[in-house]
Design goal:
Chain lengths: 339, 328
């Protein structure tokens, strides 16, 4: 285990700045999720930690040791790729043994280590198979076993679940959480799937345009987004303009108590579950209704033209065109000052 | 003639033409119906599969025709000449030309020269081409386009021009020779290597490297860079990554390039003709056909047949160990 520190890291490719002055620390044994839209710099950040990109500015430190210019093969970093990147000219077992072999581990020891990992990941029966004959989930397990075989101090996972079907993704995600907990390894988990990051990671960093917008525990990021981008990117959010005055939020057509904080023009960020259909100050007309199994997602128009997304029980969900009264749980809203 | 008459006349001509076409079409269909089923279905397809087969035949027909006229016939005639008893007409049967091939120490030496020299130049060319392709495909080099042009254009140069360039560079008055002479203070005559085996070696490589390079570039485009990164992260140095991960992925290209360059080396003639350093098989074929040797066409045909059989066997063997998509 080791902690990772990115100290004002900037990476430019010609005129393009992929990573812009990123400072980040991943604690010993912590799993940090890096989420953000495509092209936000999350993979470049991961590749910089792995040693495949040298920062244009800034430093990368493992346990206070500057590794900015250390080549990837000397970093003891395990990498798991979205595309699996298995060696097709080797069997599954040879793939897993490759790392220890490159590090001069004796043949019996690397065989033992490979068997242990294949057992741990429940793919022992695939040991002699050609990786190209395996399913996506099996290949990803092999990729993980291969990365763990070098007993890495840091594990980097680059969108490891992308491309897997939903059911398999859920199962693998659960297994991965257990495995990473057991191994107590420092890990950076890059994904564009915020739900995945929330399940797997201790903390998450939201990136946008090469910069880190917010770092925090998943519930912090979800409940208290630092800005509108985070609010929009992580989960579904309703953003309503309001004025905070004398302990109340004035929406023009409705008022609610205001949480402690700024006065003046504000943006109220409310998750769909913060609204409740029933007695409340907001009058709205339901425009859309989508049945999603466990719940119904409805979109309702407010008198001022704004619309809100609601999460309601399928049994009591209003129909499109129905006029409803909405209550807002102000304990669950986050107020961003516009100034 | 009135307009109506003209129209009627035209209508009559059109009607006769249509009748004639219908008759030809009917005859064609009747003929096609009498043909055995697979052939009949090619001429008169019933299904999309039949139409696809017809398209394949139409596309391959020019090549098949060319292969027959310019390949199969000359090769069979060459084989016939090689076992002919008479000099100017193909008649009788004699293996004397082949016996002479085996018995003549000069020709045996030429065969050995051809093999070792072709093999050595192929290996060196392949090594240089692999390194160059690796550098160009893996790293962002400045002036990449210019470098590619520079590396690729010798492929279109005839061997004679390559030999001439070697003389211009490495001959008595050559640029490189005189530069080295200037630096070392030695005589340029002593340093000139254009007409030595070394000069010929460079000339061969000059012609062969671009061929291998172009084929290997295609293979490099197929390499999964993530596997190379995985290997590096697992502790492999760049050299070991190349050996364990990259090389297996470009193996079909390497084998393909080996077959192509080795065949090129076996076939080089113009360069040898100019530099005249080493007696090789192509040169001997030319010599056997020259007036100096009395136009020994049986021997030349036997040598060409051996050459052809060797190249064919070597290519077939090489392709067994590589994938079909090498596309030689």
């Amino acid at each position: 285990m080791a902690d990772i520190t990115l100290d004002s890291v900037t990476k430019r490719f010609g005129e393009t700045t992929a990573v812009d002055d990123v400072s980040l620390t991943v604690g010993d044994g912590e799993i940090l999720g890096v989420v953000g839209p495509s092209g936000c710099g999350k993979t470049t950040t991961l590749r910089t930690i792995a040693g495949f990109e040298t920062p244009t500015e800034g430093r990368v430190l493992f346990d206070d040791e500057d590794v900015t210019r250390v080549p990837p093969e000397w970093r003891n970093v395990g990498l798991v790729f979205q595309s699996y990147a298995l060696f097709e000219n080797m069997t599954v077992r040879e793939n897993v043994q490759f790392g220890p072999k490159m590090r001069g581990v004796s043949k019996p020891e690397r065989r033992r280590r490979a068997s242990e990992l294949l057992d741990l990941l429940d793919i022992a029966e695939l040991a002699d198979r050609d990786p190209t004959t395996l399913s996506g989930g099996q290949q990803q397990r092999v990729g993980l076993a291969r990365a763990l075989a070098i007993e890495p101090t840091i594990l980097l996972l680059d969108e490891p679940m992308t491309g897997l079907d939903a059911q398999l993704k859920t199962r693998l995600r659960r297994e991965l959480v257990d495995l990473l907990d057991d191994l107590d390894v420092t890990a950076l988990y890059v994904t564009h799937d915020q739900a995945e990051a929330m399940v797997v990671c201790d903390r998450m960093a939201v990136m946008n345009g090469g910069r880190v917008e917010q770092v925090g525990a998943p519930e912090d990021v979800y409940e208290r987004p630092a800005n509108e981008f985070v609010a929009d990117f992580v989960g579904t959010s309703n953003r309503l303009p309001a004025t905070a005055r004398n302990g109340r939020l004035h929406f023009g057509h409705a008022t609610t108590p205001a949480p402690d904080g700024d006065e003046g023009d504000v943006t109220v960020v409310a998750r769909p579950e913060a609204f409740r259909v029933g007695e409340g100050p907001f009058d709205a007309t339901v425009r859309e209704r989508a049945y999603l199994g466990e719940h119904v997602r409805a979109v309702a128009d407010l008198p001022d033209g704004e619309s809100v997304t609601l999460r309601v029980d399928p049994a009591t969900a209003p129909a499109p065109g129905e006029r409803v009264s909405l209550a807002l749980d102000t304990e669950r809203v986050h107020v961003l000052s516009d100034s | 003639m009135s307009t109506d008459e003209a129209a009627g006349g035209t209508g009559g001509t059109d009607g006769r033409r249509a009748d004639a076409l219908a008759a030809v079409s009917a005859a064609f269909h009747a003929g096609a119906a009498r043909l055995p089923d697979p052939l009949g279905r090619v001429l008169q397809p019933h299904t999309e599969r039949d139409r696809e087969r017809r398209r394949v035949i139409a596309l391959c027909a020019p090549f098949c025709l060319l292969a027959t006229v310019a390949g199969v016939y000359p090769l069979s005639e060459m084989l016939r000449i090689s076992v002919s008893e008479a000099k100017y007409v193909s008649e009788g049967f004699s293996l004397s030309a082949y016996e002479r091939l085996l018995a003549d120490p000069h020709l045996r030496a030429s065969a050995v020269n051809t093999l070792w020299f072709s093999l050595a130049t192929t290996i060196v060319s392949l090594g240089v081409a692999t390194a160059t392709a690796h550098a160009l495909e893996k790293y962002d080099l400045p002036f990449r386009g210019a470098l590619l042009t520079l590396l690729s254009f010798p492929i279109s140069l005839p061997g004679i021009v390559a030999a001439f360039m070697i003389i211009v560079l490495l001959g008595n008055t050559g640029l490189v020779t005189n530069l080295v002479a200037w630096f070392t203070g030695r005589s340029s005559v002593d340093l000139a290597v254009a007409t030595s085996v070394g000069g010929l070696f460079v000339a061969y490589c000059y012609s062969m490297i671009p061929r291998a390079f172009l084929l290997l570039r295609g293979s490099y485009a197929e390499v999964n860079e993530r596997t190379e990164e995985a290997a590096r992260s697992l502790g492999a140095s760049p050299a070991r990554t190349f050996y364990h991960v990259t090389l297996p992925q470009i193996k079909p290209g390497v084998i393909g390039a080996f077959i192509l360059t080795f065949r090129t080396a076996l076939a080089i003639f113009g360069t040898v003709l100019i530099l005249q350093t080493l007696r090789v098989w192509t040169y001997e074929i030319d010599y056997a056909l020259s007036s100096g040797s009395g136009f020994d066409i049986q021997l030349a045909a036997a040598m060409a047949t051996v050459w052809f059989a060797f190249v064919l066997g070597f290519t077939a063997l090489g392709l067994r160990y590589t994938s079909a998509e090498v596309g030689l």
